[in-house]
């Protein structure tokens, strides 16, 4: 990738599936460089949710290059995902009127439950869909669609590797799937993948949510959606050990109802 940087820069891939992130070094200073990052990265930086944004520039290819401070830290473990600090930062994201306003301004996509269900069913492996528990869950997704008048900024990919601890602070990175939608979409992502009945209640308390019957139904619906999507992806790529792991998570979620 040609970034059109001044001489003296050195670049190396910083990981990620898109290949658009790099560690840049200039004058012995490290920077996190990314091509075509989320257009409201500046707002995330102002809210101290992501590492500080240093500059943005457009190169001749039309791509936009952003530079953030490079922080030497550690991503969260699976066990750390249920810590109160994670719940509180997620609440900060969901309750930020600045993030919501700016995402609307840049034309952020909206998470529509019906469209999410249709996308899940498209090319869903037939042999997996035939399993009794999976078949029932897919049917239940169709019988009732969640609805709420509350619409927030949803990160969309709350994998534990997208949380960075550095300098005594917690940051949430990789905003490529950000959208406007039901906050239960994000909450269910965390709880379905990392929670248990006991820790889930503690997490929701730290978040500041009241677990009434409506929220509970929405969390279960989106939890099924997330795990069924994981099963679909793993089965499609023939990662059968991963399929078994997610099936176990799915059965645990079903058993907790």
TrEMBL record:
Query: InterPro entries, alphabetically?
Result: Aminoglycoside_PTrfase (IPR002575), CcrZ_PhaseVar_Mediator (IPR052077), Kinase-like_dom_sf (IPR011009)
Aminoglycoside phosphotransferase domain spans which residues?
39-217
Q: Which PANTHER family match?
A: CELL CYCLE REGULATOR CCRZ, PHOSPHOTRANSFERASE YTMP-RELATED
Name of this chain's protein:
Aminoglycoside phosphotransferase domain-containing protein
Q: Which organism is it from?
A: Lacticaseibacillus paracasei subsp. paracasei Lpp123
């Amino acid at each position: 990738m040609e970034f059109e940087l001044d001489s003296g820069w050195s670049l190396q891939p910083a990981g990620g599936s898109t290949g658009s992130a790099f560690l840049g070094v200039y004058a012995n200073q490290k920077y996190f460089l990314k091509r075509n990052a989320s257009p409201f990265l500046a707002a995330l930086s102002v809210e101290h949710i992501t590492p500080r944004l240093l500059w943005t520039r457009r190169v001749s290819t039309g791509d936009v290059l952003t530079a953030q401070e490079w922080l030497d830290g550690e991503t969260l473990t699976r066990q750390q995902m249920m810590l109160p600090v994670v719940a509180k930062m997620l609440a900060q994201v969901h309750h930020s009127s600045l993030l919501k306003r700016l995402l609307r301004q840049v034309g952020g996509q909206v998470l529509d439950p019906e469209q999410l269900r249709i996308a899940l069913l498209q090319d869903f492996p037939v042999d997996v869909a035939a399993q009794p528990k999976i078949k029932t869950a897919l049917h239940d997704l169709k019988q009732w669609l969640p609805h709420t008048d509350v619409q927030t900024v949803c990160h969309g990919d709350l994998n534990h590797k997208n949380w960075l601890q550095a300098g005594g602070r917690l940051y949430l990175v990789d905003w490529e799937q950000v959208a406007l939608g039901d906050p239960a979409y994000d909450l269910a992502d965390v709880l379905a993948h990392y929670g248990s009945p006991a820790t889930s209640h503690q997490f929701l308390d730290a978040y500041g949510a009241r677990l009434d019957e409506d929220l509970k139904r929405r969390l279960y619906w989106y939890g099924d959606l997330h795990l069924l999507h994981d099963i679909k992806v793993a089965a499609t790529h023939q990662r059968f050990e991963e399929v078994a792991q997610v099936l176990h998570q799915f059965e645990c979620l079903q058993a907790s109802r």
